[in-house]
Write a structure and sequence with these properties.
The complex is a heterodimer. Chain A is an alpha/beta fold. In chain A, about 50% of the residues lie in helices and about 15% in strands. In chain A, strands 2-1-3-6-7-8 form a 6-stranded parallel β-sheet, with helices on both faces. In chain A, strands 4-5 form a two-stranded antiparallel ribbon. In chain A, strand 6, helix 4 and strand 7 form a beta-alpha-beta unit. In chain A, helix 2 packs parallel to helix 3, helix 7 packs across helix 9 and helix 8 crosses helix 9. The longest helix of chain A has 15 residues. Chain B is mainly α. The longest helix of chain B is centred in the first third of the chain and has 29 residues. Classes of the chains: A alpha/beta, B mainly alpha. Chains A and B meet through helix 1 of A and helix 1 and helix 2 of B.
Chain lengths: ~210, ~70
Amino acid sequence: MRLRLVLIEDHQALREGLELLLDREGCDVVGTAGTAAEGRALVERLEPDVALVDIRLGDDDGIALTRELLDAGPERRIVLYTGSADEDLLFSGLDSGARGYALKDGSPRELVEALESVAAGGSYVDPRLRPALLSRRTTERLPTLSNREREVLDLLARGLTGEQVAEQLVLSAETVKTHVRNAMNKLEAHTRVHAIAIALREGYISPPDQAAAS
Amino acid sequence: MNDDIEFANRLRHDLRTPLTIVTGFAEILASDRPVSDDDRRDYAQRIINAAHEIRALIDSAKLAGE
C-alpha cells in the first residue's frame, strides 16, 4: 500500500520537486503546505501516515510545529527534514518528539526509506549525522544500560519496529516497551529516537553499518 | 560570532534545499528507469532553475562577506 504523506516545506520548487520525486518512489503525497499554519491544518484534516516537516519554514519553525502537532496527537509520525547538520538543531529536533530526522543530502530513495521506517512505527536518524552524535561523547558518568536494554535500542536503531524487536528477541511487545521506557529514563531521553541518539553518542550501541561489518 | 554561526547554518540549509532538487532529478535522468521526453525536459529545467538559485545564494553570501 502506498504511503500517505503530507509535505510541509516552504521552498516552493523543492516542495513541488519532492512531490514528483516521492510519487515516483511510490508515495502518495496527499497534501503539501508552505507554512506552519497551513501544514498544521492539513495534518489535522488528513491525518497522513507520516508528515515530512522542513525544520526551517521561512519565518516559521518546523520544530515548534512538530511539538504542537505531537501535543495534540502523540501518535502522529513526523520526520524532520533539514539541510543543516548542526548539532544543537539535531538535539532540539530529537527533543521535539519527531521519530525521524533526515538530511537533504540524502537521495529520494533514502528519504522514502526514512518515511517508511517511521510510518511502520520505527525511527530514523540520517547516517550522516552519526559524527555529530558521536562528537558529543562526554566523560560524564551515565547510568549503565542492561544488556537487554542495549539489545532493544540496537534493534530499534536499525529501523525495526517495537513489534519486530519483540519477535526477534522472543519477548512480549509490553516487555519491549518496558525496556525502552527504562532506557529512556536512565538516559534522560524525552523520546525513543532521543534515547537511540544518546545510546549511539555514548557508545552503548554501534551505528548499524559498523555493527553489520563487525 | 553567534551571528556568523547562525548565518553559516542558514546558508548551508538554503544551499542544500535547491541542491536536493539537482541531485534528486539528476539521479532519475542518470538511472535506467524510463522517462518520457516531456518529463526529461521538465526535470532538466528544474535542475537548471535550482542551479541558478544556488549561484544566486553563493553570490549573495559573497556580498555579505565583503
